Amino acid sequence: MIVDWVIGTLRTRIRAAKFLIATAVVASATFGVVRAENWPQWRGPHGDGTSAEKGLPVEWTKEKNVAWRLALPGPAGATPVVWNDRIFLTSAEKKDVVLLAVSTEGKELWRRKVSSGNKEVRGDEGNSASPSPSTDGSHVWSFSGLGDLACHDVEGKEV
After folding, report:
1. Do residues 137 and 129 lie in contact, with contact meaning Cβ atoms separated by under 8 Å?
2. What is the pTM for the complete model shown?
3. Residue spans per domain, the chain
4. Is the pLDDT of residue 30 over 70?
């Protein structure tokens, strides 16, 4: 009985995490156009999860403070990164890990395979798409949980 409760709780948290990731992408895109500061890596421009920008929303729901939504090809624990009008994120896609570029209008610009052999861990709580990409505005680096490193330019061309 306790095991069923734990599994049910984990599933609920996983669904919530997927929603938060998708919402983070939307929120990043929604306010990325308005704000001047880029978010080039996990935990932001200063590596501490903070932004110098003012007046950003502090709460959202499926409807509140959301300009658009985009279905991802699969689960991922990675945080998106933002540079000007582009959002870069990794996701599982069946047995692959992919890097996606999305416009701040919510349109997928391109999708590139980073790695084959996606491995899920702790049920659906994590997978090989968990490492966050990083960018300098010219290149995007992505790393899979299987140890594969990829570099693309912001147009999606492999470097």
Report:
1. no
2. 0.75
3. 2-47+69-153
4. no
